[in-house]
Structure of Alpha-ketoglutarate permease:
Amino acid sequence: MTQAYLDMPDAKRRIKAIFVGSMGNLVEWYDFYAYTAFALYFAPAFFPSHDPVVQQLNAATLFAAGFIVRPLGGWLFGHLADRHGRRLSLMVSVGMMCVGSLIIAVTPTYATIGLAAPALLALARVVEGLSLGGEYGASATYLTEIADPEHRGFYSSFQYVTLIGGQLSAILVLLLLQNVFLTHEQLLAWGWRIPFVIGAMLAIITAVMRRDMPETDSYKEAQKAAKPQTSSLRGLLQYPREVAIVVGLTAGGTAAFYTFTTYMQTFVRQTAGFTDIVTTYIIAGSLIFALILQPVYGALSDRIGRKPLLIFFGVAGAALTVPILMALSHTRSPFIAFLLICGAWVFTAGYTSINAVVKAELFPTNVRATGVAVPYAVTVSIFGGTAPAIALFFKQQGHEEWFYYYLAGVIFLSLLVYASMRDTKHVSAMHRHA
């Protein structure tokens, strides 16, 4: 009883820190995904064309552009987190996200300023991409380090709880605007700006909240040792195997994640043929289901290890992705569409729920944030951010089903990595500081 009593203050400190860190992550991802949720409405304002597929392809291309700079953001904020603390890095990243959202909210349309409109939109996506590139590594590291060792998988799963929660929040804002506050015409004309104003305001609030976040014990202990003389990137070169594992385990997972979240909004609307509002309900429902799965799988990984869940994702994803997307493209039932997307989440959560903790457990403290962020950001830029654009390109060419096989193939390649890597729950570098 005495030990339990003594542990209570520490438990409360951890839970509060995880809550604040997670809420900041939610706001960052809300801002980032508001772009996708409202692309159907703002694309005509920035990309004039009589073909809606072309408009969406242009919007998806800029979405991918935001990912191109994520490796740079991962390096910048990873270095900041490894040298000056996780908290400072998280505060600066959310501030940059505020700037990106404000740019989108106030940028005039193509009809008003011509090519400057899509140029400013691209600038906003670059700013948001830099911010998000840093947010992932710093928040994954922070949540993993602040958690107690026996529940590290469970607590770190809240990174994707809030990541998905951010997208869900963007979808819910869309639902409210569609059904309660605005007409379709108003959304097309100016209503699409509202979610970006909301995101900027929430980012400011989050930056203030993060000022009081405690620094992690792992970082404090690492600071007591002699500071490394090399840069974070140069230090990362000492761990080529771990870097290669991050790239390999991320490729299939990130392609699946961005397919069943970001691209689904467009896929369900344009390929399955559902209305805007029905599409929004389907996506919102599937995201709620996905959100619930994250802590369940995270807690399961604390019991059985990380590797079994990754292998489950790889096997099921490689085998079932094509049948699920084929069936989804032909169904005319919203309920069946919802069930199919949820079915995809049953195996995709095997990756999303634990990928943050697996990456953090690969690296020692002094390069952990950089090690998590940079190879992850590079891989997401290649396989994740491009997924909607690749899918729309195949669709425009009249071979949309080619994307289904592409996705299954990338997942299979990651499966090879899952099968050969060590289980980081049992062989972890969390206790190492250099």
About this structure: Confidence is low (pLDDT under 50) at residues 1-6. DSSP finds 21 helices and no strands in the chain. Residues 147 and 155 are 6 Å apart (CA to CA). The chain has one domain: 20-420.
